[in-house]
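Notes, p. 3: input format for complexes.
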Amino acid sequence: MEDDSSPCFAHTLVDGQVIDPQTLHDVRVFRKSNRTRLYELRKKQSLETREKASTNIAAKLDDALGDIAEKTIAAYWPIRGELDLRPWMTKAIAKGARIALPVVIKKDQPVDFHLWTPDCAMKIGKWQIPVPAEAKAVSPDIIIIPLLGVDKEQYRLGNGGGYYDRTLVGLSSAKTIGIGQSFARMDTIYPMPWDIPMQQILLADA
Ligand SMILES: Nc1nc2c(c(=O)[nH]1)N(C=O)[C@@H](CNc1ccc(C(=O)N[C@@H](CCC(=O)O)C(=O)O)cc1)CN2
Ligand SMILES: Nc1ncnc2c1ncn2[C@@H]1O[C@H](COP(=O)(O)OP(=O)(O)OP(=O)(O)O)[C@@H](O)[C@H]1O
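Output follows (206 residues plus FFO):
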């Protein structure tokens, strides 16, 4: 006989939450196939189209953020066809903002944010992502987060490391802005207990 209240040896704990293993499996498969689909869409894009999308997002960020003097803003160094915010980052510093980049310190742990300037020395960090050579850790007021996919509730599909979700748990006062391409829109990513929705989403015009 089935007994729903049976001791839950058939369940899995993720981040202290009980999740049915079949659900966990299905969601992982769904996300993996969607990551592959979305990476392919990025790959098909010409460099020119991506550059236009990056310029478009830079303008949307200016509108969304207003005066950024004295603000500490986490951006990112683009990988895998992400929108390139580096020209915007340089302009933001000229307007008095401080820019930081995410740095993976350890697998499956929150990232740190290290100050970046256009002329700072860089080194290759974890996952082969360039990071500032000198580690000046800061706590951002605003975090601009690249996304592969995003759903109607503003939950984000990222590269699959879970780094931003882990990081945002400890940075609840920071404003989060997810940015990506218009083809990133999805109905749902089947949010799990660890997923944290973005406060704002900006997508480049198609
Ligand atoms: N530009 C940029 N920098 C960033 C991030 C980002 O998304 N973009 N991150 C934001 O988190 C962190 C790096 N996150 C990463 C997460 C996963 C993989 C990765 O290679 N994952 C495996 C598959 C993982 C899985 O599906 O289980 C892979 O693709 O082979 C790489 C980087 C920190 N820096
Ligand atoms: N706060 C957390 N505590 C423990 N595990 C977590 C947490 N957040 C995410 N994870 C784990 O990380 C894995 C990847 O999560 P998810 O699919 O949400 O990645 P993502 O948001 O696309 O990745 P990223 O943020 O690196 O771009 C999942 O297996 C999940 O269990």
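Residues 5 and 73 are 47 Å apart (CA to CA).
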